[in-house]
């Protein structure tokens, strides 16, 4: 059986660069023998002394890293900030672009719209994982080769504009605009592709097609105006009283017609109601209408109240 | 009350560079790893074996230490000694150490005044 020292040396030298291995082996073996001797001279048993000495020398990989002058971290302080900011920049844009592109291709070219969202999300996640992996690998290699990056030094000119004054963040604005765009896109989308078909297999719009000549264009206009308000709000950086007013008018201009149409049973396509027995049953339509009206009212009140609170908070 | 861990961290930081200085001074008289370790410990520079052995190796690669194998005794050992370059660097390090001591003294006296 090989001795503990032999096993320790083998474990340490395994990761030391080959050209120096033999010499480090000889020296380390002599040092370990010296250390053991120092302990046995004090009256300790050889086996126990060997164990203690090797324990003191610690993990073989750590010792080998010391000999090879190898970092014990994946990405050290020299590269960490660059790695983090590069990753942040790539991850905020590319996965989303990939997801949208794949989703659109799936829905249009492959004509499988029902799988578009799943495929898009899957592709986006994969893109994020791949980006993270390869960027990290690249920086881990840089860390080990100690390649200087020669990036321009940080200067005070790079300081961002004081962000404290900003109540409205870019992410909030983007989320709101995306939400409005989705609703806006849904209006024509449901007309052509609702995935509900009539007895002949033709597409059945969800909303009453008659509304296209009356209310729907008006609602679409309100949505467009709301997008403009979001942009103005972002540029202003906070809620002002005029913005609160315009926002409230637009919220009501959307909610009141919607509530009116719901309560007078004019929103849903009559052909759609005919097609589904459940909708024709007594009380079901009423319940659906009431729930919808409550949701619309709650969302509208929430939106107006939030703008009021934020505008007041800023004034104080 | 300052925790022992915190204190140990600060002391380690303070001591970090002094192992190099102490080794360069001690190795004006050639010695091998374990004997150097004991000499340093005896002179108030306690240092871990797994820190010192790789450090000697690195200082040798940087040209601050020269080495030679001694095969006269029963066990062949690698003896290190401070090279001319090592002596130059040591001079600078000692100057700086003295400057730190002077500055600290000045600062202490300045505060007391």
Question: Would you give an account of this structure?
Answer:
The complex is a heterodimer of chains A (316) and B (113). Chain A is mainly alpha-helical. Chain A is built from twelve helices and no strands. Chain A has helices at 4-13, 18-41, 46-57, 60-68, 77-108, 113-145, 170-192, 215-236, 241-263, 270-275, 277-280, 284-315. In chain A, α1 packs across α4 (60-68), α2 packs across α3 and α5 runs antiparallel to α6 (113-145). Chain B is α+β, with helices and mostly antiparallel strands. Chain B has one domain: Arc Repressor Mutant, subunit A. Helices cover 65% and strands 12% of the residues of chain B. Chain B has five helices and three strands; from the N terminus they run ααβααββα. A three-stranded antiparallel beta sheet of chain B has the order 1-3-2. The longest helix of chain B is centred in the C-terminal third of the chain and has 29 residues, at 84-112. The model of chain B has no long low-confidence stretch (mean pLDDT 91). The interface between A and B is medium-sized, with 19 and 18 residues.
Can you describe this structure in just a few lines?
The complex is a heterodimer of chains A (316) and B (113). Chain A has 316 residues and is mainly alpha-helical.
Lay out the secondary structure:
The complex is a heterodimer of chains A (316) and B (113).
Chain A (H helix, E strand, L loop, with lengths): L3 H10 L4 H24 L4 H12 L2 H9 L8 H32 L4 H33 L24 H23 L22 H22 L4 H23 L6 H6 L1 H4 L3 H32 L1
Helix pairs in contact in A: 1-2, 1-4, 2-3, 5-6, 7-8, 8-9, 9-12
Chain B lengths: L3 H12 L2 H9 L4 E2 H10 L6 H13 L3 E6 L6 E6 L1 H29 L1
Antiparallel strand pairs in B: 1-3, 2-3
Instruction: Specify Rg of chain B, calculated over alpha carbons.
Output: 17 Å
Structural category of chain A: mainly alpha
Principal-axes geometry of chain A comes out as elongated
Helix content of chain B: 55-70%
Order of helices and strands of chain A: HHHHHHHHHHHH
What is the spatial order of strands in the main beta sheet of chain B?
A: 1-3-2
The number of domains of chain A is: 3
Helix content of chain A: over 70%
